[in-house]
Amino acid sequence: MKLSWRTYQLHLKHPFTIARGSSCVRSSVIVTLDHDGIVGFGEAAPSPRYGESAETVTDYLSSLSSELSGETPESLSVRLSSAAGGNCAARAAVDIAIHDWKGRKSSLPLWRLWGLDASNTPLTSFTIGIDSPETIEQKVREADDCPILKVKAGVDGDEDIVKKIRTMTDKPIRVDANEGWKVKELARDKILWLEEQKVEFVEQPMPADRLDDVRWLRAQVHIPLIADESAATIADLPALRDAFDGINIKLMKCGGIAPARAMIDRARSLGLKVMLGCMIESSVGIAAAMHLSPLADYADLDGNLLIDDDPFDGPVTRAGAMILDERPGLGVSPRK
Ligand code: MG
Fold this sequence. Notes:
The chain is of the alpha/beta class. It has helices at about 55-65, 75-80, 90-105, 110-115, 135-140, 160-170, 185-195, 210-220, 250-255, 255-270, 285-290; strands spanning about 1-20, 20-35, 40-45, 125-130, 150, 175, 200-205, 225, 245-250, 275, 300, 310-315, 315-320, 320-325, 335.
């Protein structure tokens, strides 16, 4: 078995701004797993929020690939599942490549391999990053065929963004504060106002470690609160039960498809709603989450739609509907 990889720079169609910062380009490492004449693809979209970069990913891959003698995709999968934490995006890339390989080996798309119903995918939202009113207007117009908008907030004046969008559309809006509201009373006032704007739910209103404040907040507001930065891995979940109504699972945070499936089961057992989200990713990482999406209540799988230079083709999204087809594995192929 052989692992190889290549780092891509994914360029955003618009500079992407959230409460933590802004970017025009994001690194992504595409992994290729070659075994028995079958090739599987995976992706790491490292996030500085979780201490990862293209370098930490490629360091991890270099070290892993030097210890693959006698290993098969199946045995490597077992080894990854018992490995220590950290390097989640890098491990996700290998885990996704193993799943793609297994799907191709059995000539089945992953959703079929897992016995899921491809007609049960939730509609995905489309993300509108923080921007000037003029650019927000342009972005909302570009998202005309997307039935659900996810709006980034968590900065001073974020009400203006929602106000602007509400002058243009009655579509469902979900708001993501990315830990941006630091004071619980401020978060409460923002959310009560967002409720009047018919916002469906709010993601990560406060910093990840402020669970006591979020517990207080949850009792003051009426719409669901979804944990993202507070819910990186399965170990985080028990503490979230009384603070949040649901969690946003990302393959890059938790280490791939296998950990995400375990996280979905755990969330259900705790009575938490499940959202599947993403980083800025190519169609490889997005496809992996799409195949899991029949298990989710909500989807925010638009990372590939926000970039200009996706190096892969994969399952398409049409008017928010994610279309899983019969291509084996992830159903992705490199663009020529
Ligand atoms: Mg989020």
